[in-house]
Write a structure and sequence with these properties.
- The protein is mainly β.
- It has one domain.
- Helix content is 15%, strand content 40%.
- It contains 1 helix and 5 strands.
- It has one helix at 53-62; strands spanning 2-4, 11-13, 22-27, 34-40, 43-50.
- It has a 3-stranded antiparallel sheet with strand order 3-4-5, with no helix packed on it. A two-stranded antiparallel sheet has the order 1-2.
- Strand 4 and strand 5 form a beta hairpin.
- The radius of gyration is 15 Å and the shape is globular.
Length: 67
């Protein structure tokens, strides 16, 4: 099974038996992004890009109300 990185678009190979029924993180070795992946019976159920908490804190500090 292969998935596509939501950040850079590169393919990530998940052909190992560990990923047959899996819920957890997977690292893209091309761009170092972390994805949260859920598989069941070797089929991808969900995949989403994890955003680092530090990045979220910086964005919240820079956010200004729209007047």
């Amino acid at each position: 099974m292969e998935i596509k990185c939501h950040s850079c678009g590169r393919r990530i190979n998940l052909d190992h038996v560990v990923f047959l029924n899996y819920f957890g993180t997977v690292k893209c070795f091309s761009c170092s992004s972390m994805l949260e992946v859920k598989t069941k019976d070797g089929v991808l159920v969900d995949a989403s890009l994890l955003v680092p908490r530090l990045y979220l804190k910086v964005c919240q500090k820079e956010a200004r109300p729209i007047i």
